[in-house]
Design a protein that fits this description.
The protein is mainly beta. The protein folds into two domains: 50 residues, no CATH class; 250 residues, no CATH class. The protein contains three helices and 21 strands. Strands 7, 8, 9, 10, 14, 18 and 19 form a seven-stranded antiparallel sheet that branches. The chain has a seven-stranded antiparallel sheet with strand order 11-12-13-20-17-16-15, with helices on one face. Strands 2-5-4 form a three-stranded antiparallel sheet, covered by helices on one side. The longest helix is centred in the first third of the chain and has 9 residues. About 11% of the residues have low confidence.
């Protein structure tokens, strides 16, 4: 039997419902060794194994008729990670269950020692959204170590996404970042293994101690499966513009079965900490200014498997 195109491969793989089947007398081109729904590995014969369902971004760069964010003052910059506040002073409140957020636990990875403690953040998106917020980091759950990926280039035009590669903790991460459309910033993060990690941010939200936090969900369907989008609204009380929405989408579908993020904030503080739950494989994070863009985001997502 000769399989010569993707459609034939999908049909063939989908005809087997049980993994662990040895398949004889199959000829398949190298370009078709992997498929979205299953994975073929070669060990004398072909061996059929199923892989997890995964979500991924379509890298949409148009509104497609959906609501997008308000206009943003693009002002991302870099500074030492303690520029707004020392996260170690808020360890139990903002980073519970994680290693101490100290210099000793921040790895150099592929950076220079000069840049090891430097992180990327936003000064102010406009309308007093963010007062030095971000300091985006990756956290290796097993090692209990932090790494600050420097986002570059910064403040690009809408529709410009940049794929960066980072090496830290003995792992390789890729981050596709930028503003796909007006008022939405996306971090699309992948890693070359199945070990857990977190992606997080912290700083001052700019709400002058009048912030209202609302956890939200939105049901949607991909490949006949019903999924839930988990996201949070942070707004200054009685202000129609000073609002930011944050959406966390683990790429592994099964990791979307419960709330996908944690937000920590003291009642009398503007400072806070927002992070993903432990994820494997990858994570897509969207931030939107003022508007709830859940429909745009769902339209940007697709599912394999």
């Amino acid at each position: 039997m000769l399989i010569s195109n993707q459609e034939e491969l999908e049909d063939f793989l989908n005809s087997y419902e049980t993994e662990g089947i040895i398949i004889d007398n199959i000829s398949i081109t190298n370009a078709l060794v992997s498929a979205n729904a299953k994975l073929l590995t070669i060990s004398g014969n072909f061996y059929l194994t199923k892989i997890s369902e995964m979500l991924y971004s379509l890298n949409t760069i148009t509104d497609n008729g959906f609501i997008v964010g308000n206009s943003v003052n693009k002002d991302m910059s870099n500074d030492i990670y303690t520029n707004e506040f020392d996260p170690n002073q808020y360890q139990s409140d903002y980073f519970p269950g994680m290693s101490p957020f100290t210099e000793e636990n921040i790895v150099i990875g592929d950076k220079t020692e000069e840049d090891r403690l430097i992180a990327s953040f936003w000064y102010d998106w406009g309308d007093d959204i963010f007062d030095d917020w971000g300091y985006f980091y990756l956290y290796d759950v097993d090692l209990g170590k932090y790494y600050f990926p420097i986002i570059s280039p910064q403040n690009e035009n809408d529709g410009v996404l940049t794929l960066q590669t980072f090496n830290a903790f003995g792992r390789t991460f890729t981050i596709n970042q930028g503003y796909p459309v007006q008022g939405i910033f996306k971090f699309d993060i992948s890693v070359n293994d199945n070990k857990p990690f977190k992606f997080g941010a912290y700083g001052n939200m700019g709400s002058d101690r009048n912030q209202i936090i609302t956890d939200l969900t939105y049901s949607y369907t991909k490949n006949t499966s019903t999924l839930t989008l988990y996201y949070v609204k942070q707004a200054e009380e009685n202000d129609e513009d000073e609002i930011v929405y944050s959406y966390f989408v683990p790429k592994k579908v099964s990791e979307n079965n419960d709330k996908t993020y944690d937000l920590y904030q003291l009642s009398d503080e503007d400072n806070n900490s927002l992070m993903s739950k432990n994820v494997t494989n990858g994570l897509i994070v969207y931030f939107s200014k003022t508007n709830d863009v859940k429909e745009w985001i769902v339209n940007d997502l697709a599912m394999s498997g």
